[in-house]
Structure formats: C-alpha cells, structure tokens
Design brief:
Blueprint lengths: L1 E6 L9 H13 L2 E9 H6 L6 H18 L6 E5 L1 H10 L4 E7 L4 H16 L3 E5 L21 H11 L2 H4 L44 H10 L12 H6 L4 H11 L1 H19 L21 H9 L5 H13 L4 H14 L4 H11 L5 H12 L14 H8 L4 H6 L15 H17 L1
Parallel strand pairs: 1-2, 1-4, 2-3, 4-5
Helix pairs in contact: 4-5, 6-11, 10-11, 11-16, 13-14, 14-16, 15-16
The structure holds flavin-adenine dinucleotide.
C-alpha cells in the first residue's frame, strides 16, 4: 500500500509536518510514502505569460528535491493535470493508495480544490490528512478573549506572542523515518517534466536553497526600510513555496531580531484573515468601501505599470518589479498607495498586476497589504493617511541610490514631470473617500 504526500507550498524534505506524519502513518500501516507534486494545469493555463519566474523556480526546486530523494533511494513523482483528474488516475493504479497527507492551504480556491479531492478519496476508501505547516499559528489558534478573530494587527500580535512556546516552533524530524519512503523506481518513469514539456520558457532565475545571514537579521530593524541596500531577507519566495521552514526561521528570529519576528506575525495575520474572511479576495474587507467611485483610467494604469509616473520612487519600484519579480516592502507600500490614492484606481487592479509579477506572490499577503494601502482593509489607521511619494523618497532613499539604480534618466529632460500634482491628488482622494463613506 501507498501513502501519498502531496507537496504544494512545502517543497522541502526537512522539518516537514505532512511528510513527517505521512511517514509515521506508513510505518504503522506497513506502507511506503510516495512524495507527489502536481503541476496544476488550471493554474498554469491562467498565467498571463509562458515565461513565468515562479514556474521556473518551482521546476528547479523540484529537481533539487528529487536529487535529495535520490540520495535516499527514493524519488519525487511529478504529474501534470487538474488535481482531481490526476488523483482519479493515481487511484486507478495497481498500488493501493490508503491515504493522502498534505499541508493546509488557506486560499479559497485551494480549499475548494482540496475538498473535491478529499471527496474523491473518501469514495475510494482513502483517507485525507491535512496539517498545519506554513504558519506558526493558524485559523482559530489566536483569537480574542470572546472567541472572535482579530481584525487589527497590534492586539493580534500581542496575543500571538503570548501564546508562543517552544512547542509551536519545534521541528518535525521527517528525516528520522526516511526508511519508509517508496523506492525510486516507484516514482514512475519520466522524471521531472522540463519547462518545455509544460510549454514554458526559462527565465534566468536560479534556485538556491534559502539562507539568511545572522548579521542581516541583527541589522534588520535599522535597515529594513531602506530600499537602496539589501537589508531584508529576500526569503519571500522560499516562504511562499515552502522551500524554507517558517518554524526554523522564527527560531532564528527569536534570538536575533524581534522586528523580523514581527514580519512573520504579519504573515500569519493575513493568512488568518483570509481564512476567516474569504470575501476579502475581491471585495472590500470593510464593506463601506465598496461604494468607492474609482476613476480607473486605463492610460494612467499603464503609466503606473511601466514606471513613468514622474514620481521617481514609484517608478523605481515598478521597474524593479518588472525586471526582477521583487520589490522592496517600503516601495510596495508607496506604489500601492499611489495607485489607489493618487490615481484613484481600484486596488484590485493593482493586486492583480502584483499577482502576475511578484516572485513571492501570496494571495493572503497581497490582498491584505493592498487593502491596507487602499484603506479598506483590516487596519486601525484611517483612509486619510496618504503617502507623499516625494517625502517617502527623501526619507528612505535620501542619497537616491535606489532611484538612480532603476531610473537612470531621473534628473534629465528625458524624465517626465509628475503625472498628477501631489496636493491636488490628495484633495481629490479625500473627497472621493468621504463621498463613498457617506453613501
Ligand atoms: P523581509 O522583510 O525579509 O520579511 C521576511 C518575511 O516576512 C517575508 O518574506 C514575508 O514572508 C513576511 N512579511 C514581511 N512583511 C510582510 C507583510 N507586510 N505582510 C505579510 N508578510 C510579510 N508579501 C508576500 O509574501 N507576498 C505578496 O504577494 C505580498 N504582496 C504585497 C503587496 C503590497 C502592496 C505590500 C505593501 C506588501 C506585500 N507583501 C507581500 C509584504 C512584503 O512587502 C513582502 O513580504 C516583503 O517585501 C518580501 O521581501 P523579503 O522576503 O525581503 O521580506
């Protein structure tokens, strides 16, 4: 008999909750564990380009994983298709699938997918076990005293910290039970599909296992807001695809940087919110904001995307995003605020564009942060906090290192004047928000 360990946002072998439980289950039931990854064609087909850094990253991460498994005489099985159809085929194979282990995914579309697979398995007598892996605290683990979810970060983070103990950060020693992995020959013929097999192209991204230096974490609090230096971990993509363990990272943060730990709490916060408030993926978290009269001018949206707004910090950020798939957090805040408040373009347009471009795109974090920028999100701050992009640049990029890197023509006649004057945009924004909240 076979126990499948379906990997999705947890592309690693160490400190792996689902794999650990799958291996122990196999040991108890005289079975063996086959790690499985499915390139979901529903997701691949929806991508706007065949040149996608995330697909490239995943493909390389899978090759890395398969190499690690090969060293233990095991192998990764990789299928291409819609998950429900793939499971239908796997269940029809001669080896009896007795259980599927996987890690929780809190996105509404993923929950629907998992439910359909769970039902299929139940119909065939196979068990479904989904476990927490990608966050420290999930769903209902950090609630207000009255049992309802927090909708404001600061009190949530206080409760989160008060609940934290070694128990929640301990590693799942999956490596102790690797004797119960299925033999490599059972992973099937064909190995890991190439990008070309899936109709995709190489993007130049290079996968390397995650690493963050203790020095960076110690300096994190002072340097994290300066986009001109590498002051943040750049681990977003590894946390997104689980090529690194969040528990291991939180243990490091506990001893080296409280400010960094705080960011991991933000991450849990948004995952928790998405699970409790799935409507927020495309509706205002605070319904009052659904009445916003967005201007939504397509030409202005194009200027924002191409980094030609005439606001150099905004333009630098948009160009960095397009060129690398990364944008510094401080600049994400400025570009998002500019789109929603200065141009009065619906936050959903920006959220969708970031979803296409960001290496570390994560629905919970992206939606949560975009709604925060638009003022409609889970936030105590009022909508009339409007970033001044010039002041942001003066404060966080005083020597213009970041701006000059991405906008070399800044300060020359080739650079356009601001597409909208700050004071005017601010007044216009306040009026539109006031009107929406009145109605
Ligand atoms: P570090 O500063 O080194 O932080 C470490 C980790 O903490 C990050 O990798 C991330 O997992 C987590 N984290 C940090 N800040 C936040 C935050 N505000 N919210 C949630 N998690 C956080 N983050 C994403 O992971 N995916 C997204 O799609 C995403 N979209 C964003 C959209 C907007 C408009 C804004 C303002 C922020 C967004 N963020 C998103 C949050 C943040 O900008 C990135 O996590 C961070 O810049 C990634 O770089 P890093 O790994 O060097 O972060």
């Amino acid at each position: 008999p076979v126990v499948l360990c379906w990997l999705r946002r947890d592309l690693r072998l160490h400190d792996h909750a689902a794999l650990y439980h799958a291996l122990r289950h196999a040991r108890q039931h005289g079975a063996r564990v086959q790690p499985l990854f499915i390139f979901d064609t529903d997701i691949l087909q929806a991508l706007p380009s065949r040149c996608d850094r995330r697909v490239d990253f995943i493909q390389q991460a899978l090759c890395h994983l398969d190499g690690q498994l090969a060293a233990q005489g095991a192998g990764l099985r990789v299928c291409i298709g819609a998950p429900l159809a793939v499971f239908g085929q796997l269940l029809a194979e001669p080896a009896q699938v007795i259980a599927v282990f996987t890690s929780h995914d809190y996105e509404p579309a993923a929950l629907a997918r998992d439910l359909s697979v769970q039902r299929l398995l139940a119909g065939q007598g196979a068990a479904w076990h989904s476990v927490k892996d990608q966050v420290i605290f999930e769903k209902n683990e950090v609630l207000k005293d009255d049992g309802t979810p927090y909708t404001v970060f600061t009190p949530y983070s206080k409760k989160w910290r008060s609940r934290l103990s070694d128990f929640y950060l301990q590693s799942y020693p999956s490596e102790k039970y690797t004797a119960h992995l299925a033999a490599r020959a059972e992973a099937g013929e064909g190995g890991i599909p190439t990008l070309a097999d899936m109709g995709f192209q190489a993007t130049g991204i290079r996968f390397a296992p995650p690493a963050v230096s203790p020095g960076l974490l110690r300096r994190y609090a002072e340097q994290r807001d300066i986009p001109g230096i590498e002051g943040t971990s750049r681990l977003g993509i590894h946390l997104r695809f689980g090529t690194g363990s969040v528990r291991a990272l939180a243990r490091q943060a506990q001893t080296l940087s409280d400010a960094f730990l705080n960011e991991l709490i933000w991450r849990d916060f948004f995952q928790m919110l998405l699970w409790h408030y799935p409507h927020s993926v495309d509706q205002s978290f605070k319904p009052d904001y659904d009445a916003m009269a967005w201007r939504n001018v397509p030409e202005e949206f194009d200027r924002w995307k191409s980094g030609t707004t005439g606001y150099p910090l905004v333009d630098a950020g948009m160009r960095e995003l397009h060129a690398t798939g990364f944008m510094h957090n401080r600049v994400r805040m400025s570009t998002a605020s500019f789109l929603c408040k200065h141009l009065l373009i619906d936050w959903r347009w920006g959220e969708r564009y970031f979803a296409e471009q960001l290496l570390d795109y994560d629905q919970a974090a992206n939606v949560g942060n975009w709604q925060w920028a638009a003022g409609s999100g889970a936030d105590a701050a009022p909508y009339f906090r409007i970033f001044n992009p010039h002041l942001q640049a003066q404060k966080f990029d005083p020597e213009q290192r970041y701006i000059r890197q991405w906008v070399p023509e800044f300060g020359t006649p080739a650079y356009p004047p601001p597409m909208v004057e700050h004071a005017l945009a601010r007044q216009r924004c306040l009026a539109v928000y006031q009107q929406a909240l009145k109605s």
